[in-house]
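My current task is to audit a protein record that another person submitted. What it holds is a sequence and that sequence's fold in token form. Thanks in advance; the entry in question is below.
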Amino acid sequence: MSPQPELWPQLVAVVEKDAFLFAASIVFALAIVHAFVAPMFARAAHRLETTHEEAVKAGRVPVNERGQSSDFRASLLHLLGEVEAVFGIWTFVLFGLLIAWPGKGWEFACRYVESGDYAAVQAGSAPVGPSKFIEPLFVFVIMALASARPIMALAARFVGAVARLLGDTPVARWFVILTLPPLFGSLITEPAAMTIGALLLSTQFYALKPSERLKYATLALLFVNVSVGGALTNFAAPPVVMVAAKWGWSSADVFRQFGEAAIASILLSNVAYLLVFRKELMSLRPTASTDEGSPASIPAWVTSVHLLLMVWTVAMLAGHHPILMVGGFLVFLAFTVATPQWQDQIRLRGPLLVGFFLAGLVVLGGTQGWWISPVLVRLDEKALMAVSVFLTAFNDNAAITYLAAQVPALSVSGPIADALRHSVLSGALAGGGMTVIANAPNPAGQSILAGHFGDGVSPMKLALWALGPTLLALACFVFIR
């Protein structure tokens, strides 16, 4: 590997050439801080709502003809307290900054936000490759499809069948849900696995009112397990998708390097937390609300149509056909309208918020390569793995591996490059559960489960409970190869 120039002078030279990149990184840092303090806004909104409800009962504030009234300040704070909305909100800040920045302006801002390719827009050329917004679109569609009643009923029946082999207790269901959906994510994609796993945990575990410590430990396990569980194929995990074609990795190559370690990591992490919370898990008792059941038996052909639409969506992602992906989603909407007796109300709020989150991450993260790439290229194998975990926690693991794929030293063949590629992807996969922004499907899980955490999920508590499974995953990727 050829010697690299000193880091600080290189970064200074980039900023001197285009000072906007530094300003964009400040906006990105503010968005990260906002994500960590979002629960504070949520708590403030709750206090204002309580005060406003008391004012409504006392007749001190106006209401409409249906008796409805709200405090605009509470609504605004609720928006600021939605972690899934944070990056979308700060995208508008970045957009306004682009418009006002000398030498950029309206046309530049529009071209960048529409493409997500800052370098191409800056160079005045057409963006290279497929649209960077296809992944947010995919996550939105696959979340909506995966949360449909036929898919959830199929997943619940399968999980229930496996849990019955283990005694069909709450602890058995907890263990099975944290094991099978993450591993199946390598086939049905991580966003679908996260949606199914979170919904099953919501109805079959969180409904049992576990302690706060166990709630956070379970959420951390779900995030870390889904992140590493997608590493059995080359098309399911966003960080793997970003490098598979560039580095010439087939599904067999990915499984050979990461598959056994991913399986071991999930099983060992689940067993470790099972031992830590053994007494509480064993004390939980199922309730009627957590039992399986459906008001109407769903015909196999209805479930088959839903499965085919999910396969179609994954295929359109692989082929980079966003218009056809949207077409499949429209078919899904029409089919649910035509078969109402076997459907629930379509869940769109969560998918829309998560799509908004990821689209914002694409826009904000697209201006961070100026400092991430120079950092990555200077590291040895162990340091690269550690830095990859750290950067993943604040910039999405897919963004980290995408930037790593652009480093020429990592694209050549040879044992050194192979070791570095393994390190950066291991760090990205293991670190994907540290924060809600560390892995693309995480906002989906948080959106589904946030209602069980009172005033919202604390980023600090999530990170602390995710640290153990993350370190265990790193150890598996290092020693099981």
User: Anything to note?
Assistant: The chain is about 70% helix and 0% strand. The radius of gyration is 23 Å. Residues 289-295 have pLDDT under 50 and may be disordered. Residues 20-57 form the longest helix (38 residues).
